[in-house]
UniProtKB/TrEMBL annotation, chain A:
Biased composition (Low complexity): 75-86
Annotated Gene Ontology cellular component terms: cytosol; endocytic vesicle
Listed InterPro entries: DUF5601, VPS9, Vps9-like, VPS9_dom_sf, Znf_A20
Gene from which the chain derives: RABGEF1
Annotated region (Disordered), positions in chain: 63-148
Name of protein: RAB guanine nucleotide exchange factor (GEF) 1
From TrEMBL, chain B:
SUPFAM superfamilies membership: P-loop containing nucleoside triphosphate hydrolases
InterPro entries for this protein: P-loop_NTPase, Rab_GTPases_membrane_traffic, Small_GTP-bd, Small_GTPase
Gene (UniProt): RAB17
Homology family: Belongs to the small GTPase superfamily. Rab family.
Name the record gives this protein: RAB17, member RAS onco family
Keyword Kinase appears in the UniProt entry: no
Length: 511, 227
């Protein structure tokens, strides 16, 4: 306050109060010493400049970015069919060199292409034409990717049928008619859809059988292609259809497997030793295969994934046990793999395969055997209880509710019931457990060290006391007696003088 | 202990050129049921032993195939091993769906496996219309005569009572194994092959062809083939 008044005193000069621009009006410190009018002008000017600078910078950045996109664009166009699926925004990354206007235009074009495609979808004759269009518009969304796959299958199918000449055309016509027919039956139940497809297979097989005069090999070959073509086309509408509760079951199974995350390899009595690198490699491959099943569209391809998964499991058991794996080993191992993998849409996939695969493949044959095992595994996981893991019901409940975990065996979990040692499922966990052991060893050593330090401290504290006490004791025992000291002046009281020889007296010698 | 079962045709001759004849091949699904440890897998391995001699070592013996030649047809056996542990019992029906033959295996030295076999039998019979599946009771581990707990007569009685066929085998020594497979093959062909569409045809792939030519197995010869 006092300062202000002081300043006021100083600023009393008129010229200081006026606008710095010299317009004659009074200025204001808040406006940097300008009057309101000049301040406004000045402010506008600065802002304008700022905006212009910003624009310039933005433009520069944009140019740089575009240049970067353009250079990466070349690489992208080459690999677009593979890299396209996960692009969330169609035609953004690959759109680099185009202006916004062009992007919009292409989007419209894309939309048009899909509608055109829908219109012609049952016809395969347009396939090659679409192929070229696909190349021109590098803006694939997920649906476009799917239709690309469909086109590819259509093309393959047509190529395959060309070898058969006239009957090939007949087969193609029937398949197309069937697909068109099926698309009008969307509201049928899943079982009815399955029946339609199976009937179609049966009719087709019968007709082929009479055409090829009983050569079942050729019939099988053609039927495989027919299945591939039809199921790729129908996949979207018949996989996990809305009329069923497949999706609910999928979610239930998924939740169930998640809740069972604590199940160890020992509880299932699986004879796979994951500490052997080769075994754990096979286990990982098996898990990958069973997960991959969901990405396939044709039932047979899905079956192949299951078979491949099973083969890896067999290898893993074979390496561990050094003898061929029997079903007694295989089924628990498969259950373990399914629990570890938690395959997406497991129930839907099983249902889809059951409904739309050639039935002879499911009941018999190697693929059928492994598929049956997978069904068993899924059924077992659904019903899994304490008894099937050799646990007591209380333990099972504890693990399910997450109150306890068999992996971190605390002292209150009694391992006498489940096993002698904490189960070690994989090398990483083994390492973890090892580290935990080391840590707990260290902490116990630390504790003893701390104890020793504390006792040392106590000792140190008591030591001076003890010394004090001792000193006191000694002092008590031998009290200090201060005897009056006789100050003996050398020349005072020469009491002993008598004993001393007489002082030498100087003698004069005459001499 | 196989004296009571001498059905193998005496005039069996070895012939290697079966495949040159236009004989239809049928696929037969055979399921092995029984408690864990009764020797199902060993039995399965025995069934196919000759065929596997020339191929790379098998990694698993849960699913195996074996071709058996009969007079008028060739049967391609697909042998499905099942998990015998009791906890998997509830899912076993999935395995024997569509099976043409089921071997119900028990261990003659363990009575409880015999009792479990009867439980399985009950289930099998509730699931199957008689005639669509050939069910065979098999007492395995015939080599363990000294610790036998289930007599051959008991097995035979059960089989008679339930209308099954019965054999005692030893997967260890191989006794009665090939005979059993042949008997099953005959039985399956008679009972099911005769029905229209009872068995589906199997187109032999070149792989099987090659295989078969290289091995001269005595089983291929159960039935005499006249020129």
């Amino acid at each position: 306050m006092s300062q202000r008044t002081e300043r006021r005193g100083i600023h009393v000069d008129q010229s200081d109060l006026l606008c710095k621009k010299g317009c004659g009006y009074y200025g204001n410190a808040a406006w940097q010493g300008l009057c309101s009018k000049c301040w406004r002008e000045e402010y506008q000017r600065v802002r304008q400049k700022q905006i212009q600078d910003d624009w310039a910078l933005a433009e520069k950045l944009q140019r740089e970015e575009e240049a970067a996109y353009a250079s990466s664009h070349g690489a992208q166009t080459q690999s677009h069919p593979q890299s396209s699926a996960p692009q969330p925004h169609p035609g953004h990354a690959s759109m680099g060199p185009f202006s916004k206007f062009e992007e919009k235009k292409t989007n419209e074009k894309t939309r048009k292409v899909t509608t055109v495609k829908k219109f012609f979808s049952p016809s395969s004759r347009t396939a090659p034409k679409k192929e070229t269009q696909e190349g021109k518009t590098p803006s694939p969304s997920i649906s476009r990717h799917a239709s690309f796959e469909t086109d590819q299958v259509t093309k393959d199918f047509v190529d395959f049928l060309k070898n058969l000449q006239k009957p090939g055309r007949e087969i193609h016509k029937q398949c197309r008619a069937f697909i068109v027919n099926m698309s009008s039956k969307k509201d049928l139940s899943a079982d009815e859809l399955s029946e339609c497809v199976q009937d179609f297979y049966q009719n087709m097989a019968d007709r082929l059988m009479s055409h090829f005069k009983g050569s079942s090999e050729s019939v099988e070959q053609v039927m495989d292609q027919v299945e591939k073509y039809i199921m790729t086309r129908l996949y979207k509408s018949v996989f996990c259809p809305e009329t069923t509760d497949d999706e609910k079951k999928d979610l239930a199974t998924q939740k169930r497997i998640r809740a069972l995350h604590w199940v160890t390899i020992q509880m299932l009595c699986v004879s796979m030793d994951e500490e052997i690198p080769e075994v754990s490699e096979n286990v990982v491959k098996a898990i990958t295969d069973v997960i991959e099943m969901d990405s396939k569209r044709v039932p047979r391809d899905k079956l192949r994934c299951i078979t491949s998964c099973s083969k890896h499991i067999f290898s893993a058991i074979r390496i561990t046990k050094n003898e061929p794996a029997s079903a007694d080993d295989f089924l628990p191992a498969l259950i373990y793999i399914v629990l570890k993998a938690n395959p997406p849409r497991l129930q839907s996939n099983i249902q889809y395969i059951t409904r739309f695969c050639n039935p002879s493949r499911l009941m018999t044959g190697e693929d059928g055997y492994y598929f049956t095992n997978l069904c068993c595994a899924a059924a077992f996981i659904e019903k899994l209880d304490a008894q099937s893991l050799n646990l007591s019901p209380e333990e099972f409940e504890r693990y399910m509710s997450g109150q306890a975990s068999p992996r971190f065996n605390s002292s209150e979990v009694d391992w006498s019931q489940t096993g002698p040692a904490p189960p070690v499922t994989n090398p990483v966990l083994a390492q973890l457990n090892h580290n935990l052991e080391l840590l707990s060893g260290l902490s116990s050593r630390q504790e003893t060290l701390m104890e020793a330090a504390q006792s040392l401290q106590a000792d140190l504290l008591s030591w001076p006391e003890g010394v004090q006490r001792e000193v006191n004791n000694i002092l008590e025992k031998y009290p200090l007696e201060i005897l009056p000291r006789e100050v003996s002046a050398i020349d005072a009281n020469n009491m002993d003088n008598d004993n001393l020889p007489p002082p030498l007296t100087p003698q004069v010698f005459a001499g | 202990m196989g004296d009571d079962h001498q059905q193998v045709p005496g005039g069996a001759q070895l012939h290697r050129n079966t495949l040159s004849r236009p004989v239809r091949t049928f696929r037969v699904k055979m399921v092995l049921l029984g408690s864990s440890g009764v020797g199902k897998s060993s039995l399965a391995l025995r069934f196919v032993k000759d065929e596997f001699r020339n191929t790379s070592p098998t990694v698993g013996c849960a699913y195996l195939t074996r071709v058996v030649h009969l007079n008028h047809a060739t049967l391609r056996f697909e042998i499905w091993d099942t998990a015998g542990q009791e906890k998997y019992h509830s899912v076993t029906p999935l395995y024997y769906r569509g099976a043409h033959a089921a071997l119900l295996v028990y261990d003659i030295s363990k009575r409880e496996t015999f009792i479990r076999a009867q439980v399985w039998l009950k289930e099998l019979q509730t699931h199957y219309i008689p005639g669509s599946t050939v069910i065979w009771l098999v007492g395995n581990k015939g080599d363990l005569e000294e610790v036998r707990q289930v007599s051959a007569q008991e097995g035979q009685n059960l089989a008679d009572e339930k209308g099954l066929l019965f054999t005692e085998t030893s997967a260890l020594s191989g006794e009665q194994i090939s005979e059993l497979l042949l008997d099953v093959a005959h039985r399956v062909y008679e009972c099911i092959g005769a029905q229209q569409g009872g068995l589906s045809e199997w187109q032999e792939t070149p792989f099987v062809h090659m295989h078969h030519r290289n091995t001269s197995n005595p089983l291929a010869s159960c039935c005499k083939v006249g020129p």
